[in-house]
Amino acid sequence: MDEAAAQTAWESLDLLFHISNILDTGLDQHTLSVLIALCDLGLNPEALAAVVKELQRDPSLFPSTLTPPASTP
Amino acid sequence: MEEEDQRKLTDLVVELVRRLLSQNPLNPQTPYSDPDLRSPHFQQSLSYAVRILSSRLTPSIAPDAAAIAESIKRRLATEGKSADALTFADLYAKFASKTGPGSVNNKWAVLYLLKIISEDRKSARNGLDSSVFLPNLALNGVEGENSSRVLRGRESREKGWSNGVLLVAKDPENLRDIAFKELVNVVKEENEVSEEVLVRDVLYACQGIDGKHVKFDSDVDGYVLSDSIKVPKATRIMVRKLCELGWLFRKVKGYISESMDQFPAEDVGTVGQAFCAALQDELSEYYKLLAVLEAQAMNPIPLVSENASSGNYLSLRRLSVWFAEPMVKMRLMAVLVDKCRVLRGGAMAGAIHLHAQHGDPLVHDFMRRLLRRVCSPLFEMVRSWVLEGELEDIFAEFFIVGQPVKAESLWREGYRLHAGMLPSFISQSLAQRILRTGKSINFLRVCCDDRGWADTATEAAAAAGTTTRRGGLGYGETDALESLVVEAAKRIDKHLLDVMYKRYRFKEHCLAIKRYLLLGQGDFVQYLMDVVGPELSEPANTISSFKLAGLLESAIRSSNAQYDDPDILDRLRVKMMPHGSGDRGWDVFSLEYDARVPLDTVFTESVMTRYLRIFNFLWKLRRVEHALIGAWKTMKPNCITSHSFNKLQHAVKLQLLSTLRRCQVLWDEMNHFVSNLQYYIMFEVLEVSWSDFSSEMEVAKDLDDLLAAHEKYLHSIVEKSLLGERSQNLYKSLFVLFDLILRFRSHADRLYEGIHELQARTVDSSLPSRDKNKSRKQTNDRSSEPGTWLSDGRKALTQRAGEFLRNMQQDLDAISKEYTSLLEGFLAQLPVQQHIDLKFLLFRLDFTEFYRQLHPTK
């Protein structure tokens, strides 16, 4: 990427990070950038949001046979 | 490129999952550190994420970045973070302006993403406040231990699930998720009905259909929200208010369907039907509005997310704004329906018209439209009545009712106004004119056999600017109607009067009646009296009317009446009134004039009876006059030869003279009275009334005027000739006077006969002649033996004469006294009369104030 593009990209990211903070989404910059890239590729934002929501939830919701509850990694 | 994109995609997804898991504070494995990429947990999460991503490939909203930004800003503002909203706006503006390489292409996607994530976070945080989880929240808040919290959480979730719907074994993650969502929905619906549902229900209610929660309750007589639904009180009230529209709609629709059902029973009438049709038109406008609203209710605006339900376009508030105008109209219609339930025809139109007197332009226009439709049958009826005389009124809605009557009472009673059906925008005078015009047409058609009125009708219509065809007029054009009626009335009246005067010669007949029935033709009456007089002295039941008719004919032929129109003479007849025994011919004789159709509208039975009464009175008066004239004939001085006086004694001579004088004086008085009375009747009463009547006939504009003028004419005659009800006393005393005069006549006759006899006696005393003696009537009962008479000689004659004269004198005195007292009584009553002005009569009778002076106290 050339200088101008990089600059634009950085500024956009910055703006979006601010917006995201205002909206209190709890995303950090890195995650946000990944998400932006995924959106840009054309993925459904609703689906992405769902992914975010699911993976941010309590992982003990997953069935006990597949995930050991509580303790070990 | 595709490959590269795909790889990039996968990498990114992996990266995302990694980061999310590492961030997740609840992750028991590696909080805040890099997760192991090989862990099954990680793999699981990854596969799950991929599954989610692949399952929803198309977004559910339109890619409009600006709209999304707007909604975000609004949300921030409603949450009270207005500073944040401003900042956001600023940032978004900057962000949106970034274009070109390196910038984000799908800006909307990113924004949408952020929005959803923030909403999810918020609802996740608030999700624990839901009432099912409430008992667990307290426990959650107390415990700090992760594991116990997790355990508790799991328990609570499981508990929740056992209340709920689905527990599936096979594909737990996804299906659990779905089940959880459904549970949330069910719970929400049980507790709290969404506004969307309420809006839909209200829309159903406004068409008279029961919705899921809003049903018609006949106890309360309204649409109510069932109590089991928990909605805030404000919403409940709002729903109730909106459902008023439904109640009104029900009422109006009920009326329409009722009327439509009753129509075959002929209870509704054309005006009622027009009303129903107009209401149905208005309702179809209303349906259009409801259809539009329903379509709107289905469509959400582009910013709705699945979790928020209040973003629906049509809220109850919006509905109440949309319903404002239909509510006014529907209320109006319901009020009208209530009013008109029992009314029909013109009364209904009048009631609706009263409601149209409203200042609000919306109401005014609405009522105007309605009234145009409702009144069109009425106006049609008026038009056909006024221009053709046709009364097409099956349902008895028109304000003119016709009755089948005989031709002669067609004008007076055939048609009348029915005030109940007269609408209030047609004034009384206009209604009278309408009635008269139609009546005239019918009269012309039925009684006069005249066809010329059709042309006048078309002329009238042309003059008024409408046509004689249907549908020329409508409500709101009352002036046009009025001008049409006025034109038609003018022409038809003129035509009718023309027909009456020219074809039926009304004036001539009136004059003829005056001349014959009111004894205007003097020579004819004189001759009739001469000829018929002796006949009428017989008792009534021996007189044959046939003979009298013959006498009438001869009377006509020998007077000037023979030159009169034969048609008029045809109608003149003799009539014998119903009589009892003991009546003389004088009491029952009368003349009659036969007025045929159409003149008998004017000369009805009652009118002719009144004419008859006047005739009787005049005839009696004439008879008295005739009697007095007859008496005068015998009183001529040269009937009594002077030489008879010489033969009598002086005393007798004096007596004779005084008696004669007395008689003469009395005759003079009576004659004065009778002739003055006669002249009064003739000139002051009959002629004056006739000239008034003539002038009124000239200016009469229609048959009603003519009838009124004739009525007045007759009435004035009746009153002034003392035949009215209030002049009963006068009338009676007058008749007593007449009787007295007739008695006098017979006395005078006797007197003069006696004198002639005396005369003849004195002449014959020198000529003894049996024949003469025998043929004379005697006043005393002595046997008429010529011998004894003659043999008595002068002395006896004188004695007889004296006696006779004394008797006569006494009789005459008696009559004279009675006469004077009666006359005074009569004259005294004259000035006291208040209802008629008899000063002219008094003037004539007491010109020299002779009678007044006799009794100055009176």
Question: Which key phrases capture this entry?
Answer:
heterodimer; A: 73 residues; mainly alpha; globular; disordered C terminus; B: 858 residues; two-stranded antiparallel sheet; 34 helices; GCP_C_sf (chain B); cytoskeleton (chain B); GCP_N (chain B); microtubule (chain B); microtubule minus-end binding (chain B)
Largest sheet of chain A, described in full?
none
- C-alpha end-to-end distance of chain A: 40 Å
Distance between the termini of chain B: 146 Å
Which structural class is indicated by helix and strand composition of chain B? mainly alpha
Task: Characterize the structure shown.
- The complex is a heterodimer of chains A (73) and B (858).
- Chain A has helices at 3-22, 29-40, 45-56.
- With 73 residues, chain A is mostly helical.
- Chain B is an all-alpha fold and 858 residues long.
- In chain B, 68% of the residues lie in helices and 3% in strands.
- Chain B is built from 34 helices and six strands.
- Chain B has a two-stranded antiparallel sheet. In chain B, strands 3-4 form a two-stranded antiparallel sheet. A two-stranded antiparallel ribbon of chain B has the order 5-6.
- Classes of the chains: A mainly alpha (73), B mainly alpha (858).
- At the A-B interface, helix 1, helix 2 and helix 3 of A face helix 1, helix 2, helix 4, helix 5 and helix 7 of B.
Helices, strands, pairings?
The complex is a heterodimer of chains A (73) and B (858).
Chain A: H1 3-22, H2 29-40, H3 45-56
Chain B: H1 2-23, H2 40-55, H3 65-78, H4 82-97, H5 107-127, H6 134-142, H7 146-163, H8 172-191, H9 195-205, E1 214-217, E2 222-225, H10 233-262, H11 269-298, H12 316-322, H13 324-340, H14 345-355, H15 361-388, E3 400-402, H16 410-413, E4 415-417, H17 428-446, H18 453-464, H19 478-503, H20 506-516, H21 522-536, H22 545-557, H23 566-570, E5 572-576, H24 585-588, E6 589-593, H25 605-634, H26 642-647, H27 650-699, H28 703-720, H29 728-764, H30 770-775, H31 786-792, H32 794-829, H33 839-845, H34 850-854
Antiparallel strand pairs in B: 1-2, 3-4, 5-6
Main location (chain B): cytoplasm
Protein name (chain B): Gamma-tubulin complex component
Region (Disordered) (chain B): 766-792
